[in-house]
User: Fold Amino acid ABC transporter substrate-binding protein from Deinococcus aerius.
Amino acid sequence: MKRALLVLSALVLSSASLAATVAQVKKKGVLVLGTDPTFAPFEFKGPGGEVQGFDIDIARALAKDLGVRLEVRSVGFGALMPQAVTSGRVDMAMSGITITPERAKVVSFSAPYYRSAQVFIVRGGNPGKFTWPGDVKGKTIGVQANTTGQYAAGDLLKPKGATIKVYDDFAAGLADLRAGRIAALIGDAPTVADLQKRLPGQYAKAGQDLTAEDYGMVFAKGSDLAAAANRTLARLRASGEYQQLLNKWIVQK
Ligand code: ARG
Assistant:
């Protein structure tokens, strides 16, 4: 009897929890994706304001496999990871989000879907002669708030005497870099490659990569949507669609 009660209360608790499940998403007929669309080529606004990119196409494939439509909601990165997901405001997040053990304590990740790195962006020609590893002492380095770039800077650059400047918005960091207010800005390798392609000569990569990391799709802790996402990723890889999406969106290394 006691046992039955325990099972019952566990059931009630789990159904009242905010983790969106496959069944719930199918019932409402829509998969709500949260993303911070300031991160080309993974998510960014097109000329008409529509959010597009590699991540959006992957999320759309998941929605298709679930038989529902995709709704894309713009959320600032700081609110997205992880509050928008843990509170149930969105069913999932994709935003070039790096899988880390700390984050995995509060959300569920899909299998890795893209290998990335944190790199240093400097002004074209590197007027500040920034290098890494090298003397970062006394240099001001920009990072985006709540990102793995910020975490790596705190762990690796601050102890070496660098000053870390935190931006909520990556574009503000780029503006400061152009104005020479910071020596370098930390960003994700594929977004930096995209910037270099779109604005030739304005930006360069400097020094060695700071980290190697993998992106994952993000779901509420314990949601069965993560397993569904893994099935979609496997399908896209096997059919060649994954490679087509890479070719469509991402500057190849
Ligand atoms: N990969 C980094 C992280 O997970 C940065 C992601 C930033 N994404 C964005 N859409 N602004 O922390």
About this structure: The CA atoms of residues 3 and 51 lie 49 Å apart. The chain is about 40% helix and 25% strand. Residues 36, 38-39, 43, 77, 95-98, 147-148, 170, 188 surround arginine (CB under 6 Å). The first helix runs from residue 2 to 16.
